[in-house]
Amino acid sequence: MSKPKPDKEYSEKVKKVTPNSPIIKDCILAFLVGGAVCTFGELLFKLYSSVPMDEKSAKTLVSISLIVITAILTGIGVYDRIAKHAGAGVAVPISGFANSVCAPAIEYAVEGHVLGTAEKMFTLAGAVIVYGCSLASFYGMIYYFFLGGKI
Amino acid sequence: MKNVVELKNSPCVLSSAACVGKTEGEGPLKDYFDVCYPDDGINQTSWENAESQLLHDAIDTAVNKASLENNNPDIIFAGDLLNQCTSSTYAVRSFNVPFAGLFGACSTMAFSIAMASVFVDGGYVKSAAAATSSHFCSAEKQFRYPLEYGGQRAPSAQRTVTGAASFIIGEKKRNSVFIPRVLFGKVVDFGITDTSNMGAAMAPAAGESIAQFLKETNTKPEDYDLILTGDLGAVGSRLLIDYLKERKNTDISSVHDDCGLLIYDMDTQDVHSGGSGCGCSGVVTASYIMKKMQEKEYKKVLLVGTGALMSPLISLQGESIPAIAHIVEFNR
């Protein structure tokens, strides 16, 4: 199949006319909201630690709490309104991952619990899982073999 | 051979109807629509069914308004954005009328009116319905992300209109809007790959069709009260005007408008570059434009239905976005 040659003059024109995303505003909001999410996580950690709980369990519980809160906010249709302004501020913390699993799970529920919700649940998060796990294994090996890490 | 099809028997618009969802019903054209649903669910269990119901309602309303001899049109031309044109198929299921499904992406309103007009003009049918629909939620699901996914959209992105429109085209009738000419567009591809900038992908197609139409009919932009593009949005409209000025030596800026800019309040409704989707040109033309033509405020209007013939699958494979623009001329 022959492909058309891109019209360079037109591409330049498109670049000139198309407005850019407000990157400075996006960065400031992402910084503030992302910081707030992490501060909230830290508060939860302090709270759970005060219960008498070991550090590892408290940290796990913080992650679980953020995931549950995100799932609820996604379910009641609030999360996407926050994310529209906060952008990376809520996408980079674990809330972004939780939302990317919950959103398709809700969307495809109408196609059934097995072939809809369960199968489509990872359409967005799949990429994070595949590359996240691959990179974690890779760095884990470097750490173990070259930097004296121990299992 | 000319591409403009001259319709010698002046097929007429017997009636038109537009049904829309919530956001459109809050927009500046709200008083012109036949039905404004208070929520986008349209009392259905899925977005796909909701879109079908909208389209069914639009065809039904238009058919009732036209008060046809045997209650139904002789054929229905309809299409939409969903895979296998499901909205249209399910919408016409209960009509028991011959059906020709069309795919022209967002150009389907102009495309279906052109097909219906040619069929009526040729004397093959006495009346034909032309209809199309789109739905914000079903389009997001198929083309972008799940609704509740939290993402940020590019300023050049457009909002798919939740709405369906239908025209009933019939034989010549006194005192009504008629269609003297139509043009079926060619596929134009300038190598745009950004799926959040559809206006840029479609502008050259609109430019080519408009230039060809004006040349073949030996008319100038000033001969028309309005040259109305389907869904170029703010970015695409500007690109089209510059394209025609720079490459075709034609200035349409004084008579040009875009359905994607008319349907929403661009300042308050947070729709970025404007409206898009099959329903966009459909509901604006079937309601607002037809009303203005009946009141003789507009006497000659060119509807330039613009469509980005993209598939998310092929886009991921790195292909550019081919576009098309069909033209229907309305006279009063």
Account of the 3D structure:
The complex is a heterodimer of chains A (151) and B (332). By secondary structure, chain A is an all-alpha fold. Chain A has one domain. Chain A is 76% helix and 0% strand. Chain A has eight helices and no strands. The mean pLDDT of chain A is 94. Chain B is of the alpha/beta class and 332 residues long. In chain B, helix 3 links the parallel strand 4 and strand 5. Chain B is globular. Chain B has helices at 22-25, 47-66, 86-92, 108-121, 136-143, 198-217, 233-248, 259-262, 278-294, 312-316; strands at residues 4-6, 12-20, 35-36, 75-80, 99-101, 127-134, 159-160, 163-170, 178-183, 226-229, 256-258, 275-276, 300-308, 323-331.
Task: Summarize it.
The complex is a heterodimer of chains A (151) and B (332). With 151 residues, chain A is an all-alpha fold. Chain A has helices at residues 8-17, 23-50, 55-75, 79-86, 88-91, 94-107, 113-120, 125-146.
Give the SSE map:
The complex is a heterodimer of chains A (151) and B (332).
Chain A: H1 8-17, H2 23-50, H3 55-75, H4 79-86, H5 88-91, H6 94-107, H7 113-120, H8 125-146
Chain B: E1 4-6, E2 12-20, H1 22-25, E3 35-36, H2 47-66, E4 75-80, H3 86-92, E5 99-101, H4 108-121, E6 127-134, H5 136-143, E7 159-160, E8 163-170, E9 178-183, H6 198-217, E10 226-229, H7 233-248, E11 256-258, H8 259-262, E12 275-276, H9 278-294, E13 300-308, H10 312-316, E14 323-331
Parallel strand pairs in B: 2-3, 4-5, 4-6, 7-12, 10-11, 10-13
Antiparallel strand pairs in B: 1-9, 2-8, 6-8, 9-14, 13-14
Helix pairs in contact in B: 2-3, 6-7
